[in-house]
């Protein structure tokens, strides 16, 4: 793959170069004040890079800078790739959105819903409806994450070893059976909650395809797109390219997290379709170019354009936005006017969100403060990569929107 670098004059792409520099100045202050270790930002129009910059360190303690080929743990930016994998199988007739999850994972046949009591002895009842593949894609399954700390069911997950990551002894099949035995927060389809839905979807992909998740990714998405840096664990030869991971202390400053930072250094036993991939800016930019191109890049079609348009519509019941249907908070961004499709958040009403954007924009981010969005109306893709956990500490994503759109002047 050729080196990552700008390939269009910003003016030709509709940007004011001086205004683009505001992005760099603003986020440089995050690094200079110790709030971020370092970052990379990439802004492209019609697939061509108009602005690419880095600042700070991929490893503060070692004095190693962020470079354009630095590898980052993208965590939940894995989810759109897993969702795309499921919809590739949908196009082939291997699954339907209305299929019960139990068709692929039998332990999901007898789900129970939390009704009361403490985490150590929850009271439950049988689920009123079966969980469908559609529920996994839209996060309306009733599954959760242990790290939320908002609900007794979250504590059930933590007690089972599911907080950040999964028990080392379990593979993905074992994790899914464990989750199926835990109570749902609500009946499938009744609310939106961020959780392990996309991890379960990854197991559906494995069963429906007859391949391990990493093999399906490699053969059907990553290799065809030339995404050779994107893996569930970096090769030993590339370990020095992987950025160190940092957590925010009570004052919001970045402190190295050695324990959590081991994630990405080896392929885990349980392949997480919800958050397991490591990637580079060059790779994820190619993924975004494919999405902007309606499922095709450089003559290689990954998915049909109509399928992708269907994925990037708001699928929430009654056209609800996340502000009204989501349980709890899961990032620093506002969710008014923003729905959810099949693997992506989708902007329905930019005015309601109080952040510069376009109707039809679709996006997601990761636990370590990474983020992307695709704006078909402006033919714009934006990628921000850093390594600070959690993503809710600083308003990076909303500020990035402000700074990108103010620079677009055509």
UniProtKB/TrEMBL annotation:
Keywords: Hydrolase. InterPro entries: Beta-lactam-related, Beta-lactam/transpept-like, Diverse_Enzym_Activities. Residues 23-401 form the Beta-lactamase-related domain. It comes from the Bacteria. GO terms for molecular function: hydrolase activity. Pfam families: Beta-lactamase. PANTHER family: BETA-LACTAMASE FAMILY PROTEIN (AFU_ORTHOLOGUE AFUA_5G07500), BETA-LACTAMASE-RELATED. This is Serine hydrolase domain-containing protein. It comes from Saccharopolyspora taberi.
């Amino acid at each position: 793959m050729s080196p990552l670098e700008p390939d269009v004059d910003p003016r030709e792409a509709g940007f004011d170069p001086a205004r683009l520099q505001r992005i760099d100045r603003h986020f440089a202050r995050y690094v200079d004040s110790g709030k971020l270790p370092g970052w990379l930002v990439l802004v492209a129009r019609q697939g061509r890079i108009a602005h690419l910059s880095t600042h700070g360190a991929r490893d503060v303690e070692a004095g190693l800078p962020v470079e354009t080929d630095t590898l980052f743990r993208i965590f939940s930016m894995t989810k759109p790739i897993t969702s795309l994998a499921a919809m590739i199988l949908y196009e082939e007739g291997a699954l339907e959105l209305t299929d019960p999850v139990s068709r692929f994972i039998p332990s999901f046949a007898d789900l129970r819903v939390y009704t009361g009591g403490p985490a150590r002895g929850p009271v439950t009842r049988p689920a009123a409806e079966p969980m469908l593949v559609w529920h996994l894609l839209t996060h309306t399954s009733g599954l959760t994450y242990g790290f939320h700390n908002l609900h007794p069911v979250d504590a059930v997950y933590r007690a089972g070893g599911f907080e950040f990551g999964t028990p080392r002894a379990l593979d993905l099949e074992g994790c899914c059976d464990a989750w199926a035995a835990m109570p749902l927060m609500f009946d499938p389809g009744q609310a939106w909650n961020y959780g392990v839905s996309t991890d379960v979807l990854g197991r559906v992909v494995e069963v429906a395809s007859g391949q391990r998740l990493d093999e399906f990714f490699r053969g059907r998405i990553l290799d065809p797109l030339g995404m050779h840096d994107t893996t569930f664990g970096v090769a030993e030869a590339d370990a020095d390219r992987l950025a160190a991971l940092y957590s925010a202390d009570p004052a919001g400053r970045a402190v190295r997290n050695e324990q959590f930072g081991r994630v990405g250094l080896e392929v885990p036993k349980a392949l997480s379709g919800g958050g397991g991939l490591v990637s580079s800016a060059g790779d994820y930019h190619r993924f975004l170019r494919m999405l902007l191109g309606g499922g095709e890049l450089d003559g290689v079609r990954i998915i049909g354009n109509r399928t992708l348009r269907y994925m990037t519509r708001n699928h929430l019941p009654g056209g609800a936005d996340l502000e009204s249907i989501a349980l709890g908070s899961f990032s620093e961004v506002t969710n008014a006017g923003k729905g959810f499709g099949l693997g992506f958040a989708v902007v329905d009403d930019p005015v309601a969100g109080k952040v510069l954007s376009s109707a039809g924009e679709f996006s997601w981010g990761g636990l370590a403060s990474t983020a992307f969005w695709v704006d078909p109306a402006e033919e714009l893709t934006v990628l921000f990569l850093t390594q600070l956990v959690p993503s809710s500490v600083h308003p990076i994503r909303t500020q990035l929107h402000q700074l990108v759109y103010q620079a677009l002047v055509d």
